[in-house]
Amino acid sequence: MANVSMLSGVELGLTDRIGAFLRNLQDARSRYKVYRQTVKELNALTDRDLSDLGINRSMIDSISIEAAYGK
Predict the structure, then answer these.
(1) What does the pLDDT read at residue 71?
(2) Phi/psi class of residue 18: alpha, beta or left (left: φ > 0; alpha: ψ in -120 to 50)?
(3) 39 vs 23, 26, 46, 49, 71, CA distance in Å?
(4) In angstroms, rounded to a whole number, what is the distance separating the alpha carbons of residues 24 and 39?
(5) Residue 63's CB: how many other CB atoms inside 10 A?
(6) pLDDT digits over 9-56, tens only?
(7) Which phi and psi (to 5°) does residue 6 adopt?
(8) I need a labelling partner for 37 at 20 to 30 A (CA). Which of 20, 43, 62, 63 fits?
(9) Where does the YjiS-like domain lie (predicted)?
(10) Residue 45 Cα to chain centre, angstroms
């Protein structure tokens, strides 16, 4: 009977790890979606609009990374 208890404990651990993996995957996909949306919106602006915001086109990638990942 002790072996059965240990096996069910292992299964629960595996289930928890799979759940955590899937949550991390979903979080990564959500962050990437924010990154892509930010890039898309900033690229849609004219150079004059970007200048009014104090943004150069070369800054779009770094701004998008900061918006999505906080780095």
Answers:
(1) 74
(2) alpha
(3) 24, 20, 13, 15, 16
(4) 23
(5) 15
(6) 555 689 999 999 999 999 999 999 999 999 999 999 999 999 999 999
(7) -65, -40
(8) 20
(9) 28-61
(10) 24
